Predict the structure.
Amino acid sequence: MPDAEVKENRRKRANIAAALSVTFIALFAFAFIGVVVMLNDYADRLQAERNPGIAVGETAPEEPFYLLLIGSDSRKGTAIYPSKSDGATQSSEYADVITLMRIDPREYKVTLVTVPRDTVLDGKTEKVNEALASGDPQQVVTEVGKLAGVHIDGYIMTTFISFENLINALGGITMDVPKTVKVVDPATGKNVTVKQGKNQHLNGSQALALARASADYDANREALRQVNVRSIERAMIEKVLSTGGDFDVGHVLAALESDTKSNADFSSLGLLMLQFVEHADDVVIYDGTGTYRGSRRDDDNAWIITEDERAWEELMNVVNAGEDPASAIKPPAFPKETSSSSSSSSGK
C-alpha cells in the first residue's frame, strides 16, 4: 500500500477515534451531552496516531461500564448572565441534565438513562441536581450511584456554551422535533424558534433551545424535556456513526475544551470507539428514564420526585441486562402540536 494511502488511513482512524470518544462518551448531553476535557494527553495520542507504529490506545474496555453525563446550568459566558463589573456571579450551579450512560463493548450497545433532576433520595432534603452546588461533579456521581445502585466509572460535565459549540463543530444534527418551541438562546439572549417536523436539521443554538424547552408541555413537562435531550444525544451518536468521523475533529476538540470537566480515561477509550465505528451496523442505542412522577412538597412548595427504590431496582435490572429501559418505565408522550404552540426555557 502506498505511503500516502497508509497515512490517510491513519488520519481517518484518528479522526474517528476522536469523534467517537467525545461524542459517544461525552454527548452531550447538554451541556451535555456530551463532552470532554483533560483532552491534551489524548489529543497528543491522536496526533501521534498519524505516525507509523503508534496506536490510539493500548487497551480498550471489554466489560460494560457506566459514565455520567452532566449538563451544568452555569451561565458563564452567556448573554443571560453576563459578567458584572461589581464582581457578582451566579451564586451556584446545578445539574440541569443528568444522563447515566451504559456502554457495552461486547454487544455494541449504548444505553442512555435520564436521572430526573428533581429526584430526592430517601433521607435527603436536597434534590439530586443540587449536589453540584458544591462545584464538585463527583458529588453528583455519588448521589446517582446510590440511586441507581451501580458503580459509575467517570463523569463528563459541560455547559450551555460548550454544548452549542459542540453541535456546531459536528456540523449540526438531524432529528425529529415533536413540538414547536421558542426559547431564549443563552449565548445571545435572543429568541430561537425550532419548528415541529420530521428530520429537522438543527444547529447548536436550535439544539440548545430544544434541550431547554418545557414550559408549554403538560404536567410531565420536565420529563418531556428530557425525552428531547435523549433524542439529541442519540442524534449526536448517529451523526458520528453515519459520517465515520468525516468532519473537522480539531474543531470538535476545541469546542469541547472550554468549560468542560471530566475524570474519564479517554486514552483507553479511543480504541473502543474505533471498534464501535467499525461495527456501526451492529450498534444498538437504547434510551429511557428513571421515575419522573412528582408532586409539590408541603413545606416549601418545591416540585420533587420522591425516590422509588423498587422502580429504580427494576429499571436497572433491565439496563444491566442490556435490554430496553423503556420496557421498565414508559416515558411520557408529547401533547399534540397546535398552531399556537410555543415554549420558554425550563426552570428549577
